[in-house]
Amino acid sequence: MPSLYLHIPFCRRKCPYCDFFSVEGHSAFLAEYPRLLVRHLELAGSRQGWAGPLETVFFGGGTPSLLAPEAVGAILEAAARLFGLAADAEISLEANPGTVSADSLAGYRSAGVNRLSFGIQSLEESKLGLLERLHTPREAIDAVEWARQAGFDNLSCDLMFALPGQGVIALERELDHFLALDPEHLSCYGLSVEEGTPFAHRHRSGGLALPDEDLYAELFKAVHQRLSAAGYKHYEISNYARPGRTCRHNQRYWQRQDYLGVGAGAHSFCANGWGERYSVPADLALYRQELELGSDPAESLESFDRRGAMSEQLYLGLRTAAGVCEEEFRSRYGIGVAEAFPEAVTRVGKRLRFEQGRWRLDLHGWLLYDHLISEFL
């Protein structure tokens, strides 16, 4: 059973650190976009390989909360009609606090959304200004309260750390603010400079000073210790959850399971054979043109061979606390992890542990993830 990802590439203002496909404004195109998504779903539903029912649905962006609740409902109705929805389907929608109201959140809940992911990033005015976010701390707090009033019992909040000038004490104060919201899930990302973004230009010119590696490690560990002590499980490098509240949709990515992506800039993965990945061009005009011609806009991006599939299994699985199951890996590929990558296992050394039949990186290994995982690629 696949999952469904819907990319909503519209923002009121693009954040200077974001490298995801999104556009500012385009209100006329935004109004038309739900119809295009439904048409894309219809074309995908006519192809083999995407049989339901759907286990998870995720509206990502961009800013999905720019969609009216009625549009979200229509899209979900089309998905249910074409693929079916599992009785316990997790249906997530990313929302920016400055774009929601008590009424719109109640509307999303009535439309079938049962999980919200709030892009808060910070609850301090100065940090929100640095990140050029459009909401205030008060608006973020109000959004969470309105969501609870609307009946949502599964909320995630994004927190960004390792910001310029941020030390451990300041981060711990920020964590206290987030914990006061009592979310079921927290995604905690260290600020990184992505090529092509305004922050990358500012960093190169010396206008954006980021923490050095030692301070970053202290901040990462501070997040881990504070949230673990508060009862959250650190289940993926950047993600923490209360028991039973992990993001099921993202787990399917990390487990290399089928997911269908619709919308301009979306990606899909089909696990048949060694796996194949598809992408939709990040071009709104082309997206509309292809759909109006009755053509599926998705293009083949990458076909995996056995070696590539094994590498990606480790690349994704070792991001998670569950790690990679040796028995499942051997059953899938006919060889064990240490046999397939003997030199990499040796070079990674004690950071990679084999316990209870699973391969896992320890906390320090997660800090060095990009460096260590390159050994397997």
How would you describe this protein?
The protein is of the alpha/beta class. The chain folds into two domains: about 5-255, Aldolase class I (TIM Barrel, Alpha-Beta Barrel), CATH 3.20.20.70; about 305-375, Orthogonal Bundle (Arc Repressor Mutant, subunit A). Helix content is about 40%, strand content about 20%. It contains 16 helices and 17 strands. The strands form four sheets. A nine-stranded mixed sheet has the order 9-10-8-7-6-5-4-1-11, sandwiched between helices. Strands 12-13-14 form a three-stranded antiparallel sheet, with no helix packed on it. Strands 15-17-16 form a three-stranded antiparallel sheet. The model has no long low-confidence stretch (mean pLDDT about 95).
Topology record:
Blueprint lengths: L2 E6 L1 E2 L11 E2 L2 H19 L8 E8 L7 H14 L2 E11 L6 H10 L3 E7 L3 H6 L6 H13 L5 E7 L6 H13 L4 E6 L7 H7 L8 H17 L3 E4 L2 E3 L6 H7 L4 E4 L4 E4 L5 E4 L4 H9 L6 E5 L2 H12 L6 E2 H8 L3 H4 L1 H7 L3 E4 L2 E4 L1 H5 L1 H5 L4
Parallel strand pairs: 1-4, 1-11, 2-3, 4-5, 5-6, 6-7, 7-8
Antiparallel strand pairs: 8-10, 9-10, 12-13, 13-14, 15-17, 16-17
Helix pairs in contact: 1-2, 1-10, 2-3, 3-5, 6-8
The CATH class designation of the largest domain is Alpha Beta
**CATH topology label of the largest domain:** TIM Barrel
Biggest sheet, strands in spatial order? 9-10-8-7-6-5-4-1-11
The structure class reads alpha/beta
What is the name of the CATH superfamily of the largest domain? Aldolase class I
- Radius of gyration from the CA trace? 21 Å
Q: How many helices? A: 16
User: Residue share in helices?
Assistant: 40-55%
Distance between the termini: 28 Å
